[in-house]
């Protein structure tokens, strides 16, 4: 059994194919999506999308955030920004993490919107760096 996976970026439909399973980075934790999954809509945090065929990861993408809609037959990912793991520049990822740490440290915590934005940027920047670690490749 398979589930239809669609990954859509602001620019285009990036991927549309049948897969055995997809693991997406939900804001409350990673979600493994299999055929006949319960319906849900979730926001995404920065992290990896792992696409499986049988028990093997066949493709990986880094997503900075977005939303996913899941039904028993389909998983649709609407990504803010998405790229293949091989497209992540390690030096740029480290620079973005350092900037996000500074922004988070300097944010006025009484400004809820600014604090949330800085927190989200830090989570995404850390996830981007973590994705490059050998144990995640």
Quick structural summary:
The protein has 137 residues and is α+β, with helices and mostly antiparallel strands.
How does this structure look, described?
By secondary structure, this protein is of the alpha+beta class. The chain folds into 2 domains: 3-85, F0F1 ATP synthase delta/epsilon subunit, N-terminal (ATP Synthase, domain 1, Sandwich), CATH 2.60.15.10; 88-136. 27% of the residues lie in helices and 42% in strands. It is built from 2 helices and 10 strands, in the order ββββββββββαα. The protein has helices spanning 90-106, 112-131, and strands spanning 3-8, 13-19, 21-26, 29-33, 40-44, 47-53, 56-63, 66-70, 74-79, 82-84. The strands form 2 sheets. The protein has a 5-stranded mixed beta sheet with strand order 2-1-9-8-5, with no helix packed on it. A 5-stranded antiparallel beta sheet has the order 4-3-6-7-10. It is globular, with a radius of gyration of 16 Å. The two termini are 26 Å apart. The mean pLDDT is 93.
């Amino acid at each position: 059994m398979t589930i239809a996976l669609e990954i859509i970026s602001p620019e285009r439909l990036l991927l549309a194919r049948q897969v055995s399973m997809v693991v997406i980075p939900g804001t409350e934790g990673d979600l493994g999506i299999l055929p006949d999954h319960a319906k849900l809509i979730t926001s995404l945090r920065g992290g990896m999308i792992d696409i499986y065929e049988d028990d093997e990861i066949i493709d990986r993408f880094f997503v900075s955030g977005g939303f996913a809609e899941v039904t028993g037959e389909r998983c649709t990912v609407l990504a803010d920004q998405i790229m293949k793991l091989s497209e992540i520049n390690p030096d740029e990822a480290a620079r973005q993490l350092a900037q996000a740490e500074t922004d988070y440290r300097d944010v006025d915590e009484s400004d809820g919107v600014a604090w949330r934005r800085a927190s989200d940027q830090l989570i995404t920047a850390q996830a981007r760096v973590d994705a490059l670690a050998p144990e995640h490749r």
